[in-house]
Amino acid sequence: MAVAIVRRAAIFVASVLVASVLVFLFMAVLPGDPAQVALGVNATPELVERTRQEFGIDRPLVTQYLDWMGNVLGGDFGRSYVTREAIGPQLVDRLGVTLWLVGAGMLVAVLVAVPLGTLAAVRHRRVSGAVISGASQLGVAVPAFLAGIVLVQVFAVRLGWLPSGGWTPPVVDPVEWLRGLALPALSLGLVQGAVLTRYVRSAVLDVRREDYLRTARAKGLRPLPALLRHGLRNAAVPVVTVLGLQLATLLVGAVVVERVFVLPGLGSMLLDSVAARDLLAVQSIVLVLVVGVLLVNFLVDVAYAVLDPRLRRS
């Protein structure tokens, strides 16, 4: 298993390097001059040229990339072309908000999907199973931002139980932090939970047809204890794949949800940077998001080896 993990780690590092090149080239070929954008349309050509030299964007692309990646590996993401402020500290602060949101959304999705998906599989020929399947199919069709708007209308506007937006750091006021995180996490988690419920149902149905589960029942175990003891771990292998994909989806979905709930996360920073044409900030944020997705895929591969003994032997 150790050899497989080392191999996957090497693939992860290579993927990050390739992704960094692609992100850099994509930003480099976009039309417009960052120096001209930073100075405005009334800037003189001499001032624009000096600013290009200050930003270092007058050098060859290979030199720019190597300098940028060298600084990123050292924790320095450079300074904003527009505000001239350091990008790294902003990324750290915004990333913390996004990680809390994505983690809470994923927790909600798992808490919803595992029991409901298992129940839908166990009762797939009964009315309750059909109701759960129908509700999950309906939830798949609902976008996260629409779920957020509905939740705000119900729990913030009409009932007044939770705030409609804003962010309080957990170290300042844990209670207000939880109250502010509840609706965004629910809007992300309920939609992804509907998707995951269908996969859990399918995985559990497949496991229930396996010979080892029939053997466990023949030894005297009741259906549900047999499933919990012998089936869920095997059903978890395909579900982990979907969880990895959903984590990537949550990172992307957080961009819109943060706007709906006015959260100062990476998504809001990305949209603000795009609007201001702050290409270096956009480049850094996109790289962080891509590395996050690749890291999730790496952790999923490691989870395979932990869950499935056949992969460890191979």
UniProtKB/TrEMBL annotation:
SUPFAM superfamilies: MetI-like (SSF161098). The chain crosses the membrane at residues 9-30, 99-122, 134-161, 181-200, 235-261, 281-307. The keyword Transmembrane applies. One of its GO terms (cellular component) is plasma membrane. Keywords: Cell membrane, Membrane, Transmembrane, Transmembrane helix, Transport. It is a multi-pass membrane protein. It is found in: Cell membrane. GO terms for biological process: transmembrane transport. Residues 95-300 form the ABC transmembrane type-1 domain. InterPro entries: BPD_transp_1_N, MetI-like, MetI-like_sf. Belongs to the binding-protein-dependent transport system permease family. This is Peptide/nickel transport system permease protein.
